[in-house]
Amino acid sequence: MNFYKIQSKLSFLKKKKVALAVSGGADSMVLLHLFDSIGLKLGFELYVLHYNHKWRKESIKDLKLVKNYCLKNKISFIYGEARGKVIKSEENARNERYNFFKKHALKNKLDFVCTAHHKDDQVETILFRLIRGTGTNGLLPIKEVSHLISHTVIYRPFLQFTREEIRQYAKKHHVSFIEDKTNLDLKFSRNLIRLNIVPNMKKINKNYTNNILLFSNLVYSQNVELDNYFSRVLCEIRTDKKKEIFPVVMSRTKLVLHGYNFLVPFLYWLLSNIGVRGNLKKIDSVIYAINNYGKLDLDSKCILEVNNDSVALRQKSQEKKIKHNPKKDLKLKINTKPCKVTFDNKNVLVITPFLSKKFLTKYPLDVENRAFVDLSRFLQKSLTIRYRKPHDIFQPLGSLNTLKLKNFLINRKISRDQRYELPLLCSDKEVLWVPGHALSERIRVKTIPTHKLELKRNYG
Q1: Around Cβ 407, how many Cβ atoms within 10 Å?
Q2: What CATH number does the domain containing 283 carry?
Q3: How many other C-beta atoms are found inside a 10 Å radius of the C-beta of residue 439?
Q4: What is the pTM of this model?
């Protein structure tokens, strides 16, 4: 690893607030050593984020190693751990870890959160997705820079270096680290790829890592161009002339004129943008339906209908909509006085003005039915507490984009019946708070809260 090359590359971090995700393993401890070595010269404020998933009894050793390094070198150390029942799922672990990052990025106003992902991680991720089953989107490389929340960037400075180069750095600079025994557990798919598949790939071609990454970057470049091209074609062939990509109605004649070799990648792109899962396996069925004027259920939310010269992708009708939304909306005016309203005879919403000039209270977790918010833009205006309705939208805390509330609830794995029983704080069709689940970016506290929200059960 070229230390000087990294140092010059990181000059843009000068005088920034930088946090490192450090587990105690070789990769992250090298990341910590490297940033600690150049931090004084670049003058950035350094933090360390350590999250304990509690998968191993030995994880206390990781904690001690990272914490002691931070104490010795006067680095701000931030610790978090899994709560409740431990679920040994790689996807669940990643979600927990990144929620921890978001929470403290917001709290400490971090500019960057850096992780130690490297070149071998890139290859293993691509292989994992390819084996599991993916289209071209799954073959895209890990981005060096991505957004964590609105003002914080995830930065991965080691993507050009291999695991072996990082280990050589650790040996040369006497960096202490702990070997995670779960990295040898073949129950986890990534370990199986790393330990059993990759060694055999080396036997075929020692340059396999660069070849796979070159291929991945080529796919990425082609995807960018195809996205622009398919967007233009969609505008030409759709008959509903809407700006949103879903629902969509297209001319069947214009669509099939492009031919089969166009239809396969185009439909994959379209279904991916709509959010239909497992769409790669459904493309042949979709083409068959288009050719034979058929009707096809794509998933729980989307249906394909082909009639005359119309190819329509629409949202399924919700039979339970009326059953689960019987109550009227309850409006409330936001001002500088406390407000307490009972909704549906079982939920009590309490809105209390925050009068202190200082804010020292910790932010509640998403799972809590309380939140500190900034309602300054809604003062003297009416908000609504109600149940979910069609076309509700939501901008989750830390997100740059607005999405359909339904898609957000599905992503959070909230059951269909429960989705209709959640009391929501709304401004027209925009949801501002899903108590116990998430807060909107629109009412995020920037400096001092204006109000405190609480949802309580009415037992009276």
Answers
A1: 14
A2: 1.20.59.20
A3: 26
A4: 0.62
